[in-house]
Amino acid sequence: MKLELGKIHIHDVQFGEQTKIEKGVLYVNAKELEAEVLKDDRLAGCHIELARPGESVRITPVKDVIEPRLKVEGPGCVFPGIMGKVTEVGKGVTYCMDGACVVTVGKIVGFQEGVIDMSGVAADYCPFSKTQNVCVVMEPKEGLETHVYEAAGRMAGLTAATYLAKALKGMTPDETETFETKPLLEQIAQYPDLPRIGYIHMLQSQGLLHDTYYYGVDAKQIVPTIMYPTEIFDGAIVSGNCVAPCDKVTTYHHEHNPVIEDLFKKHGKTLNFIGVVLTNENVFLMDKERHSDMVAKLCEYMGMEGALLTEEGYGNPDTDLMMNCRKVTQHGTKVVIITDEFPGRDGKSYSLADLTPEANTMISCGNGNIVLHFPAMDKIIGTQESIEMQIGGWVGCKHEDGSFDAEIQIIIASTIANGFNHLCARQY
Amino acid sequence: MVKEIDRAGIPVTHICTVVPISLTIGANRIVPAVGIPYPLGDPTKGEKKSHEIREHLVTRALKALTVPVDKQTVFEEDF
To answer: CB distance from A206 to chain B under 8 Å?
Structure first.
């Protein structure tokens, strides 16, 4: 399966009479976009705001971040099974709006929604402080049940991204990258002398607003399966979760999965990247046992010599992480875990809720419990009224001048447990 | 909390949904519960059945308190 990603670089975003891209500037017709989002009768209101790097702007509570992408050649559409028919994706040509994002924001859904600061000290911890952000600010209809509001918010983001992506049509990419994975036997034969490496991608699927969708299927309903890596670049996986912001894998992070991107960089040079095993993080022990058994079986079946393993969220998914690590190792595949840590503000508690002796090679993406002072901003997109409730905050953490103190787990993607961000921990 | 109650010399049973975590943190008497969203019942089986499940698990947990253990023990079945 071969996919070409054409990147159109965006270095500014402005309102305009027509939604289009010109000389690297994304112009947004806000009225048209708002009307598109408001076709959903679960929403009472929607308005568009823009946020650019360096501005004194805070966006919160953030639900999801999405990069607009457009399928230009090949079957299917971006976000298959959600924004169009279910068709296999991951081959042909796809254009990306590189440097621009849709950010969904509005009254809190759950308590696990985050903050993006466009400047100041907290901006250093967030990848979306460096992107041109089209913020879709939503108001749910009165009395809307929480899970229905979550679904409406998720669709609003995907709808906005699909709308903006139309502006990519007919553009000439500034940069093109090609990715290819062959059918397993051919892929193994292509680089017989290189180690066969795979990726085990654990999708958040705890339910109760903690869900992920694969081709439109709720991930808690899947059993582990094999995916061509390029499928993910076409939006085969969509986030629908209210996980702790710091390690929430937003839809953007699925589109840009850093483990897959980096494995492709080394593919054919130092390793043979043979494929992805997708699994979930369900809330029943029987599911955890069954699915980790299946992950180990699939890795063995594919002839994987080594695997990188990531989770989303923390707490009970740490058990899935450790079960996968233990069983995959016992089936003969070496495992490296990439994760973040929650050892408390003093760093003295256990970093993870569960452990196994096989987890002897781990890469840390940082400590989510570190406290930071968030300075007051000139403008708030969304509302700060829930900061004390949002994970990372506490009663009394807000100050009268609009500043607050919170653990960095309140910042979207600050310690994201697939290595997308720049934090890490070293042991001396 | 389980460890501290144990340390104080009071027998304690950890009714828990994710047994591996309980084993990792060092609980000595463990009774597996139903699942994280509903540890002591099952709303999919109706109120009456859910109550029975709850009574069953709590009874097993209370009984586990009376059993001397010399290592971490998971009480999977009634005894």
So the answer is: yes
